[in-house]
Amino acid sequence: MTHDAKMTYRIGLLPGDGIGKDVITEARKVVETAASSFGFSVEWREFPYGAEHYLNTGEILPDEALEEMQQCCALLQGAIGDPRVPPGVLERGILLKTRFYFDQYVNLRPALTYPNVPTPLKRGEGIDIVVVRENTEDLYVGLGFLSNEEIEATVDMKRPSYTLKGALSLKVDPSMKFAAQLALATEMGVRRITRYACNLARRRKASEIVLATKSNAVKELYGLWEEIAKEETSKEGISLKLVNVDALCYQLARDPSGYGVILCPNLFGDIVSDLLAGLTGGLGLSPSANIGDGLSMFEPVHGSAPDIAGTGRANPLAAILSASLMLEHLTQVEASEAVKNAVLEYLRAFPRQRHPMELGGEATTSEVGDSVASIIQRM
């Protein structure tokens, strides 16, 4: 698809915490370079939400901010998390809240081997896999309970596409501390993510998708996944291969070459994509997209690494590659390809000492961004 020279995109920026601010600066630089080269423009709207804002104000992510984000074409996010804030507060209050509010039901995580990047793979072995992770259900719905004896809880969960209401009553005898976490799979949720995976497979000229499952141990939850996925792939004319998630991890570590599109429930997708990141050179090269029918959000998979924030040691390539996914989503396909190809050319052609420190080089965060931007300018 060709670009529209008159198009202006309003992009929301959520730099977040730690190195999030460092890497988003470089992703923004690269997007602006691509915009200049391909004849469109970008307006940025920065949102301050993250650890510093929370510690200073007690506010995590207000609903008014979500309403304002809705005026954007896309969101580009850095990283969320800070040791000064209890685990889960920011992750649930910002990441999951945003995903659920905008019904971003697809979490897309490509895994690709890059030139001159050390990996544990055999020489000459390559990976070109995309994990299509269901992003709003499974164990991540936030329905968890902790008690010293019994649980009496009312469930009232609202999503843009449906509501879930009910009650949970549990008691353990003899009395002891226990926890219960509810996992959810709906027919609608499984159908739409399976359709997305089939469409992606077609775009990649693939005839099969693999479903990461575990119905032999969790019959009802993943049995429903298998039933619906079989129906949808049959309608779409795509073959479906079922692989237990533990066996899948084993096979990916042994020989990932036979895999292309992997469809995963939420928890399995989180785990499998991190395994693939380890096989392809690290989280500093792992982008992701949170995609829905409305506003979508793009972010590197890595965390906030506060210990190296502001030191120039952060690798911005995952954030830059996430920006490439964002440009593709905005139908700026040529610009998206240019950003991705610039990263490949940078790693292929630049000497090792000019690579990010994470990859054994000496380049600072901003120097990496400058190098990728300079390649785009020469294209």
Automatic annotation (TrEMBL):
PANTHER family: D-MALATE DEHYDROGENASE [DECARBOXYLATING]
GO MF entry, a single one: NAD binding
Bilayer-crossing regions: none
Keyword Transport: no
Cofactor(s) needed for function: Mg(2+); Mn(2+)
Protein name: 3-isopropylmalate dehydrogenase domain protein
Domain Isopropylmalate dehydrogenase-like intervals: 10-372
InterPro entries (UniProt xref): ICDH/IPMDH, IsoCit/isopropylmalate_DH_CS, IsoPropMal-DH-like_dom
PROSITE patterns linked: IDH_IMDH
Coiled coil: none
Pfam families given in the database record: Iso_dh
UniProt keyword terms in alphabetical order: Manganese, Metal-binding, NAD, Oxidoreductase
